[in-house]
């Protein structure tokens, strides 16, 4: 028996829907959806609380009808929070606030607290398990295809059975798999791309011995009966005929031998007792839905100006944390941190968003970091600069933009990070010079722009023994200013960068390139630890090849990233540790790990990404002036 269930995702904040189109979407998409549930339920319907509130402004009767269908068992409501914000990119307290405010609104509007949750954009991290459990959720929906791709040891039959997912805090939660191919098959049927017979043949082909569970649909409701006009390849809008085909499909499924349509909760009840499994891996720490072009960089460091608007949201978040802010402010921040403002947002909505974000910043008194101070101290003309403080031993290369050749930290001053010379590795892919502390910008079809050139340099020594180095590097796009502070009382190096570039186009900008000195670390115990929206997550690296920053295609510059949502990441083995901290209020950089072992030698590097290229990138700055980035490295 195949237990099939369907889930329709509602989102009136969808990036390509103008606000004046919302009533049309409610009429042409959400109304027919309730008719589908009335005739062929139970089906799942998921929406943020913000979307429910927006629907009520267009049609209060719709919300009343939804509530009635829930009461009669024709609809099971699935929760997701107040706004569609990406959990693995938010501070843990922000994730908790989004879930708390969502539940409060669900209770007010529908008189319920959802049992099952759909993680926003299906962007999963182990740290989210505890967040949803604490918010009262007892199960989650997760994409099978991308997760399973990084677990070659999993059996194919696992896709047809609910599992238990292990969280980073040691707790676990039941999960139902969603299925990319299955939901796209139903979309193709509705759009008259495949006949009903082919669709039913696909579903019948998923049957097997014993009980199986299959998610027939887990995607947008707005694509049936409405077209935002975003894609040139978009199917023509066939209006109500698409919903007619969906009715025919559900009617035929109900009559299909060996298939039973159930609610998501009923599908969950078919779960056998299984040992918890970990979904995320070192190579793929934040799985998301659909094709590989979808990854968290599209909401973190791409879009129109994701890095700047995310920094503004972080500053607002920190301001709200410092005060006893009312829930209205937290709700507004949830809305401003939502994913749809970070992808294919229309020009009119982008301009309105920037006004709203600026207004909240002005009201709370949050502002971007000021410009870097002017250089001070003596001028340096030597190529190499030796820095010694009670806590640090560092060598800089002025010919390479003040890149760190080696850095040792108290108490033993063993060099832990630095450069790796050309030819160190036998692997041709690694036979280049590797640096620490440099910046690289790559744009399609253009030469790389880096700061690996002579730096006009000044050095100043403070009475407490700390040292500040100020460098200016000319590039074809404009100057890069770099201030490095070497502390005396703690083993810490601060980087403060200012890019005085006039234009930020389409490309990838990566900073820091913190490269481990492989001989200082034990490969077998090496791991990285960070936070992605919840409790800290640790990923062992032994035997792993990890390339988060590898391009997916000519259009997509990175495969994955780490949210670093509390502003830190640690690379550590059983003896030694390097900690990297990011000032998220200046720029919430995301982390890219590059790790492999070749010829008995270890290569491990953390890149901090400020910009990536994908289909959402459409340069349109939130604010004018130079861009500032701040991060630190500690031993």
Can you walk me through this structure?
About 1% of the residues have low confidence. This protein has two domains: 278 residues, 7-stranded beta/alpha barrel; 257 residues, Beta-galactosidase, Chain A, domain 5, CATH 2.70.98.10. The protein starts with a strand and ends with a strand. Helix content is 26%, strand content 26%. α1 packs parallel to α9 and α2 packs parallel to α4. It has a ten-stranded antiparallel beta sheet with strand order 10-17-18-19-20-29-26-25-22-23, with no helix packed on it. Strands 16-15-21-28-27-24 form a six-stranded antiparallel beta sheet, with no helix packed on it. Strands 1, 2, 3, 8 and 9 form a five-stranded parallel beta sheet that branches. With 635 residues, the chain is of the alpha+beta class.
Give descriptors for this structure.
6-stranded antiparallel beta sheet, globular, 26% helix, 635 residues, Beta-galactosidase, Chain A, domain 5, 2 domains
At the first level of CATH, the class of the largest domain is Alpha Beta
Roughly how many Å is the radius of gyration?
Answer: 26 Å
Oligomer: single chain
CATH architecture of the largest domain: Alpha-Beta Barrel
The helix count comes to 14
The parts where pLDDT drops under 50 for at least 5 residues are: 230-234
Mean of pLDDT: 94
Structural shape: globular
Strand content: 25-35%
> In angstroms, what separates the terminal alpha carbons?
57 Å
Number of domains: 2
Q: What's the count of strands?
A: 29
Return the structural class. alpha+beta
The CATH topology label of the largest domain is 7-stranded beta/alpha barrel
Sheet having the most strands:
10 strands, antiparallel
Strand order of the largest sheet: 10-17-18-19-20-29-26-25-22-23
Fraction of residues in H or I helices: 25-40%
